[in-house]
Amino acid sequence: MTEKKVKYNSSAIQKRLIPTYIFLTICSLISVFPLFWMITAATNQTVDVSRGKIWFGSYAVENFLNLLHSTNLWTSFGNSCLYATVQTLLCIFICSLAGYGFELYHDKGKDILFAVLLMAMMIPGVATMIPLFTMMSKLHFLNTVWGFVLPAISTPFMIMMFRQNSRNFPVDIMEAARIDGLSELMIFFRMYMPVMKSTYAAAAVITFMNAWNAYLWPRVVMTDNRAQTMPMLIANLAGGYTIDYGMLMMGVLFCSLPTMFIFFVLQKQFTEGITGAVK
Amino acid sequence: MEKKSKMGLLAKQKAAGWLFLVLASAMIIVMSFYPMVQAFITSFKTGSSANMQWASPLFYNYKRMFQDKMFMRSVGNTFLYLIIQVPIMLVLAILFAQLLNNKDLKFRGLFRTCIFLPCAVSLVSYALIFRTIFATQGLINIILMNLGIISEGINWLGQTNTARLVIIIALIWRWTGYNMVFYLAGLQNIEYSVYEAAKIDGATGWKTFWYVTVPLLKPVIIMTFIMSINGTLQLFDESVNLTNGGPANTTITMSHYIYNNSFGQGVANFGYASAMSFFVFILVAVLAAINLKVGDTRD
ipTM more than 0.95? Predict the structure, then answer.
């Protein structure tokens, strides 16, 4: 009898949730549609795109070949992969080292330094872009991977993320390792890094996403076409007087492939990466 | 003797601690603080990048900035986007989070993924998608015409107000799910017993939300506010790729205008651009400080 009551209750609850289901379904469709349309448009001719066709067409290969002929697609794709990978590896290494130092060796001096570094979060990209451009051009780092990554391999956000997550790191392990004669640096490599795997994954995902999607700084530092990134390439595609929409959407799709892959396969890490510093 | 060696060990550990953070700290100082100081100095100079001199009067660039109608318009535009978009987006995000936090709701994961999905594409990508959809011969016009709402295509991006509207719609579309994720994480930290206590006290759904959920979410709400303000004040990708600042620079944002003055269109007015960027920095800092002050109720 109690079971029956529970069942009745749950169906009543579901009935009451109907407006919620309808609302969420509509919002989900609005949310998904532009991306779905981007994919279908990449398979259509410009004429069909302008005619409002929203289903898949048969021009995918043609759009792709057009894109290949009119841009240096592979170079840009390769550049983006290189820049984003180098930035990710350096950033998570440098920032995790700092987060570890700030949390597990903390004292008053380090806490003050950390508070000062946090203020860098408020410095807007447009404000530092001119001096950084001058700096990179003096160092002959324009159009190189170093010009791309150097301003972004140490960020307060990432340091904070590692610092917050280091709170869960068991200090006993460190003491045990010291007794075993491990040096401080070795404790970091052998003990800290394996334990913090999930934080590293989240940090890597979010850094890669940010690096791949960056637009303002690459536009400043990559003055040569051959050094350009994917977002720059697709932005240039849309710059002409007559736009081939099918080809443009194929470019957009290409630019979005790695980030969409990350979104669907590593969504958990991505979410953790975004909210990582809030705990 | 033993004591001495132990002291040495502690000192060694302390030194190691500093060593761990020196690289990251140095990078932030060299790549953020130092350029900021440089930008401040440059803001008092005039001339092109190669040979710059001190401006006379010293505040020339700042004076020029406040008389520059175009810059003032870019400030106005940025604030317009900020004031309209941020509240709508954050309210929607809280609403979604609240709805999705219901344990009785089915397909929660699916809904969550769908609403979060816009974050899977870059800012340039979605700006170009929206630009194509809202083109005069674009999908939105075709749909509206087929529904009989309009008789001929609206030139969305060719008119100031509709172009601004498209930017705002696009921003809401892209960032609502992003903020929702923060609220969902925040809601999951609230103990279920708090809600049960509220229920026993006779609080209804709306009251529970307003008097229990919102106060407990306050730190997260303040943080999303600061992030959104910070992000909106630095809007660049959308202004460049969705409207290109047009028509006639009426939808341009501050960052876009600063970029145009420093790296775009063959001008390298670094002094003037630095003055404007310093202004943006002050705005970001002041708004963040106000936010923190308003949010701080610990007194």
Answer: no
